[in-house]
C-alpha cells in the first residue's frame, strides 16, 4: 500500500489533518520568522513578549465575545496541567462529571485521586455516545467536554438546570474551542489548547473564566489548602493580568496563537469559524454516508463533531489506508490509539480548507479501490 502513488491532481493542497498538533498556517510561520530576531530568544518579562501575550488575550476575548467580568487566563502545561489546576483550585469539595471519552476520563481520575476531595459523581457513556450532567445536591463543580477528541462526539455548552446556587460549570473545549459555537454565559470556565483550532504549538492552557470562577479560586487559596506553586490558579490569574506567565512560556506558541486569532477575527470571528468547520463536516460525513465501505462512527447526527470526524471502515483496512496516505504526504489521519477501531480520524478545524477535506475523501476512495 505504501508503494501506491496517488495522482497529484486529486491530492489536497495541504495534507495535514491532525487533531492536535494541528495544521499551522504557513502565513503564521512567515510572520513569526519576520519577528524572530526581535521576539524569539527575548525575555518574557519584557514588553516585546508581554505585548504578544496581551494580543493573544485580546484575540480570545474578541473571538469568543467574552462577557463583562470574564477574564482570559493562561499558563504553562496544556490541558493535562489544567485538570490538576482545577482539581486544586476550583473544586471546593464535590464534583460531577459527564465522561464519554479518553480525555474526560483523565479529569475524573485527577479529582478521584485528590485526597482532599469527596468521591465525584460520574455519568458515563460508551465511545460514540454522549453523557450529560444532571443537578445534584451538594455538587459545587460540574465538568463536561464540549468535544471529545478521542471519539468525535460533541455536545452543546449549557448550564445545569437546578444546580445548587454558586455551583460552577467547567467546559473542556480543548479541541472544540474555535470550531464549535459557544455562549460563554453558559459556563464558568471554558478552557482550550493552542495546538488545535488555534493552529499553534502546544505547551499552554488557555481559559476564559467567569467572575464566579475567579472568586472561587481566590476563596480556595485563602482557605489554606496546599496547592503546588506550578498549579496555583490564583498565581496564573495574577500573572495573566500582568500579560505574562509564572514560568517562561514557549514564545512561538504565544505568537502563533495570537496570529491565528487575528486571522480568524478578520474573517468574521467565531461565527465564520463555526461555519467553515461545519462545511468540512458536511463534506466528510456526507461522503461517508454515501460510501459502500465507510460510515460515521457517531451514529447520532446531532452528536457528530464539526471539529474532529471519526469514520469507521468495513471490509477495508483503515490502518493500511492511513499508511498509504502518509506515504503520499497526507498525514495524521490515524484513529485515537486507545479507541481501537478500524477507522480514520480527521481534524476539521478552521485552518483546514473544506476543499482539502473533499480531496482527502477522493484520495481515500482511490486507495480503497486498489486494496
From TrEMBL:
Which cofactor(s) does the record list? pyridoxal 5'-phosphate
Keywords assigned by UniProt, alphabetized? Amino-acid biosynthesis, Aminotransferase, Cytoplasm, Pyridoxal phosphate, Pyridoxine biosynthesis, Serine biosynthesis, Transferase
Its pathway is: Amino-acid biosynthesis; L-serine biosynthesis; L-serine from 3-phospho-D-glycerate: step 2/3
Could you tell me which residue ranges the Aminotransferase class V domain spans? 144-330
The record's annotation in Gene3D superfamilies points to:
Aspartate Aminotransferase, domain 1 (3.90.1150.10), Type I PLP-dependent aspartate aminotransferase-like (Major domain) (3.40.640.10)
Entry's EC annotation? 2.6.1.52
Picking any one GO molecular function of the record gives: O-phospho-L-serine:2-oxoglutarate aminotransferase activity
Q: Where is the composition biased (Basic and acidic residues)?
A: 1-14
> Where is region (Disordered) located?
1-24
InterPro entries given in the database record? Aminotrans_V_dom, Pser_aminoTfrase, Pser_aminoTfrase_mycobac, PyrdxlP-dep_Trfase, PyrdxlP-dep_Trfase_major, PyrdxlP-dep_Trfase_small
Enumerate the catalysed reactions.
O-phospho-L-serine + 2-oxoglutarate = 3-phosphooxypyruvate + L-glutamate; 4-(phosphooxy)-L-threonine + 2-oxoglutarate = (R)-3-hydroxy-2-oxo-4-phosphooxybutanoate + L-glutamate
Q: Which family does it belong to?
A: Belongs to the class-V pyridoxal-phosphate-dependent aminotransferase family. SerC subfamily.
What does the UniProt function comment say about this protein? Catalyzes the reversible conversion of 3-phosphohydroxypyruvate to phosphoserine and of 3-hydroxy-2-oxo-4-phosphonooxybutanoate to phosphohydroxythreonine.
Q: Under which name does UniProt file this protein?
A: phosphoserine transaminase
> Which organism is this protein's natural source?
Paractinoplanes aksuensis
Amino acid at each position: 500500500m505504501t508503494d501506491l502513488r496517488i495522482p497529484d491532481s486529486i491530492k489536497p493542497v495541504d495534507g495535514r489533518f491532525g487533531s492536535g498538533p494541528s495544521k499551522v498556517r504557513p502565513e503564521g510561520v512567515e510572520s513569526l520568522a519576520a519577528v524572530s530576531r526581535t521576539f524569539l530568544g527575548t525575555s518574557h518579562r519584557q514588553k516585546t513578549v508581554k505585548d504578544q501575550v496581551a494580543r493573544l488575550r485580546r484575540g480570545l476575548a474578541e473571538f469568543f465575545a467574552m462577557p463583562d467580568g470574564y477574564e482570559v487566563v493562561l499558563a504553562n502545561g496544556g490541558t493535562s496541567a489544567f485538570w490538576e489546576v482545577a482539581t486544586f483550585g476550583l473544586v471546593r469539595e464535590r464534583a460531577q462529571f459527564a465522561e464519554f471519552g479518553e480525555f474526560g476520563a483523565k479529569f475524573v481520575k485527577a479529582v478521584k485521586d485528590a485526597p482532599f476531595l469527596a468521591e465525584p459523581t460520574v455519568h458515563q457513556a460508551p465511545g460514540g455516545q454522549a453523557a450529560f450532567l444532571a443537578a445534584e445536591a451538594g455538587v459545587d463543580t460540574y465538568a463536561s467536554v464540549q468535544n471529545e477528541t478521542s471519539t468525535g462526539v460533541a455536545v452543546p455548552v449549557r448550564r445545569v438546570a437546578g444546580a445548587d446556587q454558586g455551583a460552577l460549570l467547567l467546559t473542556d473545549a480543548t479541541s472544540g474551542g474555535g470550531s464549535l459555537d459557544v455562549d460563554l454565559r453558559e459556563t464558568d470556565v471554558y478552557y482550550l489548547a493552542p495546538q488545535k483550532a488555534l493552529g499553534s504549538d502546544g505547551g499552554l492552557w488557555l481559559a476564559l473564566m467567569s467572575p464566579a470562577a475567579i472568586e472561587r479560586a481566590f476563596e480556595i487559596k485563602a482557605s489554606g489548602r496546599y496547592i503546588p506553586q506550578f498549579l496555583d490558579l490564583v498565581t496564573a490569574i495574577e500573572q495573566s493580568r500582568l500579560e505574562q506567565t509564572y514560568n517562561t512560556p514557549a514564545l512561538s506558541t504565544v505568537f502563533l496563537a495570537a496570529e491565528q486569532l487575528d486571522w480568524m477575527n478578520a474573517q468574521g470571528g467565531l461565527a465564520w469559524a463555526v461555519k467553515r468547520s461545519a462545511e468540512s463536516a458536511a463534506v466528510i460525513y456526507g461522503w461517508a454516508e454515501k460510501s459502500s465501505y465507510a460510515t460515521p462512527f457517531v451514529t447520532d447526527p446531532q452528536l457528530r463533531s464539526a471539529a474532529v470526524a471519526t469514520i469507521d471502515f468495513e471490509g477495508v483496512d483503515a490502518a493500511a489506508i492511513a499508511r498509504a496516505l502518509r506515504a503520499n504526504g497526507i498525514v495524521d489521519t490515524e484513529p485515537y490509539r486507545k479507541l481501537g477501531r478500524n477507522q480514520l480520524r480527521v481534524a476539521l478545524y478552521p485552518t483546514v480548507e473544506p476543499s482539502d477535506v473533499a480531496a482527502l475523501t477522493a484520495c481515500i476512495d482511490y486507495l480503497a479501490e486498489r486494496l
